From TrEMBL:
SUPFAM superfamilies: Cell wall binding repeat. Residues 1-18 form the signal peptide. It comes from the Bacteria. Keywords: Signal. Pfam families: WG_beta_rep (PF14903). This is WG containing repeat-containing protein. The keyword Signal applies. InterPro entries: WG_beta_rep. It comes from Flavobacterium reichenbachii.
């Protein structure tokens, strides 16, 4: 019986810690909304930030501290400024000094660095002189400073630069692609795009494969096909660098659900993997499909269509990327984890896939749901 109680308690703790809450503003105060539409923490804070790893920064008497998903203070308000938790570590400022703390609020002793960087993907940068290296969340150096630049990690890989040449490393600091290219893309299924002098191509198994006529290639995202430009027009290439859809479009965005937004003249529609229009180009703008099979399209305002092109949510909303937290999500616009952040008559709320408003509530501001 005792073991069962302990097991249930652990499940409850895990459930609480895994909840997603959205920072919302109502009557000039900030609180937190749950995915079921209820207000989990009533609006009561003058200034607050979104949750990250089960903790949210809120301000009290001019100082910042952290609360949990129940609204209980976990780290007292004693900091002048704070950022977000990642891998159990947060960057905070106290007495004009930036330091790392853990989830208990204890200051972590980090290796020497000219700047304190946020953690991302299990690592953080350190800077010594003009060079950048990496530390892990245990404050151990895993890559001695050796690069001129390291970009943010995406899916465990980061672009690095030395002497104006770019390559790729993994989160262990190991060089996956030597810095030898003038530009380089993200790392997707052991493939990336790159530019060598004026030639664009793909790098596969350490070999640079030119893409015929390409003068720009965009990152691979969720499918084994990406868009590229040739002679001012946009088409699509596969992982081998072959043009699978000829460059005949004025603009394009990524494939998702086997459909991609493309622009002809000033109108947007969607093509399939054969390059055939599945949704005719009739819209002022269009975004990629979300996992739930809905995509934002714009007439005078934004609405949503399904994969057959049927309008399922009327075009009466504003949508936008989330400037503060877009770095933490795969997709900036449209439905994310079951809800879409939209604006209507200067109020913000969340749409459900059936077009109803989450909790039937609108707010002065609303940020994306975060754990």
């Amino acid at each position: 019986m005792k073991k069962a109680v302990i097991f249930l308690s652990l499940l409850f703790i895990q459930f609480v810690n895994s909840q997603e809450l959205a920072l919302v503003k109502k009557n000039s105060k900030f609180g937190y909304l749950a995915k079921d539409g209820t207000m989990r923490i009533e609006p009561q804070y003058k200034v607050a930030k979104s949750f990250s790893e089960g903790l949210a920064a809120v301000e009290k008497d001019g100082k910042w501290g952290f609360i949990d998903v129940k609204g209980t203070w976990v780290i007292p308000a004693s900091f002048d400024n704070v950022k977000y938790f990642s891998n159990g570590i947060c960057v905070v400022s106290k007495d004009k000094e930036w330091v790392y703390i853990n989830t208990k609020g204890d200051v972590q002793k980090a290796p020497p660095s000219e700047k304190v960087f946020d953690f991302n993907g299990g690592v953080a940068f350190i800077k010594q002189g003009a060079k950048i290296g990496l530390i892990n969340s245990k404050m151990a150096v895993i890559l001695e400073p050796k690069y001129d630049q390291i970009k943010s990690f995406e899916n465990g890989f980061a672009r690095v630069e030395n002497n104006k040449k770019w390559g790729i490393i993994n989160a262990a600091g190991k060089e996956i692609i030597e810095p030898a290219y003038d530009e380089i893309g993200n790392y997707y299924k052991t493939i990336t795009w790159a530019r060598k002098d004026k030639t664009f191509g793909l790098i596969s198994a350490g070999k640079f494969i030119p893409v015929e006529g390409a003068d720009k290639i965009w990152d691979f995202e969720t499918q084994d096909i990406t868009y590229a430009r040739k002679d001012g027009k946009v088409g699509f290439i596969d992982l081998k660098g072959n043009w699978t859809i000829l460059p005949i479009y004025d603009k394009a965005k990524a494939f998702s659900k086997n459909l991609a937004p493309v622009c002809v003249g000033s109108k947007w529609g969607y093509i399939n993997l054969k390059g055939e229009f599945a949704v005719p180009p009739t819209y002022k703008d269009a975004e990629v499909f979300s996992k739930n099979g809905l995509a934002p399209i714009k007439e005078s305002n934004w609405g949503f269509i399904d994969e057959k092109g049927k309008l399922v949510i009327p075009t009466q909303y504003g949508i936008t990327s989330n400037g503060l937290l877009a770095m933490f999500v795969q997709q900036d616009k449209g439905f994310i984890d079951g809800v879409a952040r939209v604006k209507n008559e200067n109020k913000w709320g969340f749409l459900k896939p059936d077009g109803t408003v989450l909790g039937n509530q609108w707010f002065e501001n609303a940020e994306l749901f975060q754990k």
